[in-house]
Amino acid sequence: PEFIIMEIAVLPIIISQLNELNNEHIKICSNLIIQHNIIKNNVKRRRKLILALLKRQRHYRINTTVDKWIDAYLDQDFHGHFRMTRNTFTKLVSMFKQDAQMEVCYTGGYQPMTIEKKLLVALWYLAKEGAMFTAGEFFNIAKSTVKKIIDLVVNILCRLSSKIIVWPKKLDCVEILEISHYTAHYYLQSISFCHQTR
């Protein structure tokens, strides 16, 4: 194949497009590297660089699937990690399944991530206030994927906010006041729901 001379940063992309690497391809890539004054005098190092660019790197990930350890959580642990009950999470998943942006068709490569897993990743990150790298480690995905998922989930949550965030009605306020007064000896102070101990 003929190549237009381009920046060295594009070289791995060119190489990855080739179905099989033969000596002619290595020679073309080697000439590109020479033209960019990289490892000009050492043929072995040039060849090693090209082969290194070809080799796909695999990052180490935790071997267990998310479903196994998420299902193993007690309800209190689930709430502690994701800041919502399993029941609320199930309702949220059903709301997200109605959004076309969340569904991704399989086009080859890795299987697309389930809506449940996307939500769990975003909730984990938001609840923990940690690094995207940490969320990626727990869910066996790349940091860039965590970023994309968080952006997607937060945007959809903003769109669904009118359905999700509901202020209590007056009758609900009375019921909440009675329950909270009965169980914890608290009383309602104005509309802001400030609780004070007696």
Automatic annotation (TrEMBL):
Protein name, UniProt field: Nuclease HARBI1
